[in-house]
Amino acid sequence: MYDVLIIGCGVVGAAAAYALSRYDLRVAVIEKENDVAMGASRANSAIIHAGFDPEEGTLDALLNVRGCAMAEELCRRLDVPYKKNGSLVISFSPEEDAAIDRLYARGVANGVPGLRVVGYDELHEMEPNLTPDARKALYAPSAGIVSPWDYALAMAEVAVRNGTGLFLETEVTGAKKSEEGWIIRTNRGDLEARYVVNCAGVHSGEVHDMACPHTFDIIPCKGQYFLLDKSEGAKFTHTLFQCPSKVGKGVLVSPTVHGNLIVGPDAVNVPDPDDTSTTAQQLAFIKRAAAKTTSAVDYRAQIRNFAGVRANNSAGGFIISFGEKGWLDAAGIKSPGLTAAPAIGEYLAELLEKDGLALNPRAGFVDGRKVVRFKELSSEEKNSLIARDPRYGRVICRCETVTEGEIVASTRTEIPARTVDGVKRRTNAGMGRCQGGFCGPRVVEILARESGVEMKDVLKDKTGSYILSEKL
Ligand SMILES: Cc1cc2nc3c(=O)[nH]c(=O)nc-3n(C[C@H](O)[C@H](O)[C@H](O)COP(=O)(O)OP(=O)(O)OC[C@H]3O[C@@H](n4cnc5c(N)ncnc54)[C@H](O)[C@@H]3O)c2cc1C
Question: Domains in the chain and their CATH numbers?
Answer without folding.
Answer: 82-143+221-306 (3.30.9.10), 374-457 (1.10.10)
